Amino acid sequence: MKVAVAKIDKYNSGKSGDTVETMERPNGGFSIVLADGQLNGQDYKSISTLISHRVLYKISEGTRDSAAIRQVSNNLFEEYEGNIRGKLNLISVDLQTNNVIISRNNPVPVFLVTDETADCLSSDSEPIGWKMDIRPSIVELPIKPGMAVITISDGVYQAGRKDKQNSDFCVSIEALFEDQEPTAQEVADFLLNRAIRLDEGRPKDDMSVVVMLISP
């Protein structure tokens, strides 16, 4: 199992609002979080870090991924009176069940690659923290050689869209996997550099790419 991260801050901003954290699971495997947090409509690094740490702490105590996200969301709603919106993607490789668990509280899709085919996981999903009882969108699949899970921030997904440039991620990802057997880092760097090009070298938002790859 390989994990790679590629990130860049919004152009001329000085700091990123995105947070990426990873943790070994108590019964084997690991979990990795990509979070983006807003308080009263403004991006805050402290909020995305708070969300990441709390979710991973719940998992470290043995809480299931979906329950951990729901509990953290409810707690944030009560603490901040509904003024937080946290976009969250959580990828877990659970060696107790030999499954990959993909959890989304984010309108941005997650991309799943199996047998050189890229699927866009884009079911309805909403950020955490702004109301009670928000549930993640979850996909759980057996670990499979060659499988890749790619999660991106909205800065990567929306890159170039204001200029109506092509943003078909599935086509780009499939082409990358068809031509070669890329490493996790090569995939992450390729997608980040693609997004930077689409924004003409000046990222309009924080950009983050996380890739989890099971070696073939």
Notes on the protein architecture:
There is one protein chain. The relative contact order is 0.21. α1 (45-60) packs across α2 (65-80). Helices cover 29% and strands 34% of the residues. It has helices spanning 45-60, 65-80, 154-157, 169-179, 184-198, and strands at 2-8, 18-24, 29-39, 42-43, 84-94, 99-105, 110-114, 117-121, 137-142, 148-152, 207-213. It has 216 residues and is an alpha+beta fold. Strands 2, 3, 4, 5, 6 and 9 form a 6-stranded antiparallel sheet that branches. A 5-stranded antiparallel sheet has the order 1-11-10-7-8. It is globular. A hairpin with a 4-residue loop joins β5 and β6.
How would you summarize the topology of this molecule?
Blueprint: E1 2-8, E2 18-24, E3 29-39, E4 42-43, H1 45-60, H2 65-80, E5 84-94, E6 99-105, E7 110-114, E8 117-121, E9 137-142, E10 148-152, H3 154-157, H4 169-179, H5 184-198, E11 207-213
Helix pairs in contact: 1-2
What integer is the average pLDDT? 91
Class derived from helix and strand content: alpha+beta
Low-confidence stretches: none
Order of helices and strands: EEEEHHEEEEEEHHHE
The biggest sheet amounts to: 6 strands, antiparallel
Strand content: 25-35%
How many helical elements?
5
Span between termini: 10 Å
Based on CA atoms alone, the radius of gyration comes out at 16 Å
Fraction of residues in H or I helices:
25-40%
Report the strand count.
Answer: 11
Shape by Cα distribution: globular
